[in-house]
Description:
This protein is 26% helix and 33% strand. By secondary structure, the chain is of the alpha/beta class. The protein has a single domain (2-222), classed as Vaccinia Virus protein VP39 (Rossmann fold, 3-Layer(aba) Sandwich), CATH 3.40.50.150. The strands form three sheets. It has a seven-stranded mixed sheet with strand order 5-4-3-6-7-11-10, with helices on both faces. Strands 1-2 form a two-stranded antiparallel ribbon. A two-stranded antiparallel ribbon has the order 8-9. β6, α5 (140-152) and β7 (154-165) form a beta-alpha-beta unit. α2 (52-59) packs parallel to α3 (78-85). The structure holds S-adenosylmethionine. S-adenosylmethionine binds at residues 9, 28, 31-32, 35, 49, 51, 72-74, 76, 93-96, 99, 116-118, 132-134, 137-138.
Amino acid sequence: MTCCRSVCGVMQRNSQVRLLLVMPSMTPTYVGRSYDAITQRWEAPQHPLTGLPQHQRATQFSRSRGHALDVGCGCDDRLMEYLRAQGFEVEGIDVSERMIALARQRHPDTRFHHADICRWELPRQYDFITGWDSIWHVPLAEQESVLRKLCDRLNSGGVLIFTMGGTDQPGEVQDDHMGVPMYTATMGIPKMLAVLAECGCVSRHLEYDQYPQLHVCVIAQKA
Ligand SMILES: C[S@@+](CC[C@H](N)C(=O)[O-])C[C@H]1O[C@@H](n2cnc3c(N)ncnc32)[C@H](O)[C@@H]1O
């Protein structure tokens, strides 16, 4: 199977990795532990923090500004801060205990959930859901069900923004390019678009925002 290689959360176009089919997906619990070990990187001033312009684009499609959910929120609050300023009431979920602990310290008034998005039952409907550089860590076999779950929990007119590996075919890779074991997967763009359509979502924007790296931002809206 041909996959794309993930480097610091970015899919690289020119490197192709052959994976053994026997290699199991790294579980979200272990992905969370790996992030526990590198949380300090998100606090370093030189750490590249992306996604704000894309979120500004996404909120333009919003019809209602009620509840928003940040999936894989991490500890940096630039996206949540932006959503709050736009009038959303935001909550966050992350599988990394340390990321959530830091996020809670910074925003004691915000609701944070320490949970795996694969297992977590979303407690309500949302007007806006973001999964920036996070849901691509979900095991390949569970990516479709997670995307369906997020779409199902959008209100009519609700907006979903997320990033994914921009290949046509599905693929997954596990390596230690971040200095800790890490796992990334993609269902591929055609499959992702089909799932969005089946869930009653219209794709409003698809952007290779770090081209030639295969880092793709998707904005979709529930009909
Ligand atoms: C690259 S960081 C991005 C953090 C944040 N979205 C940002 O842009 O600053 C990925 C985050 O996704 C979280 N994550 C990975 N898999 C997850 C899962 N299955 N459920 C919830 N969070 C997950 C990680 O713990 C980590 O905090």
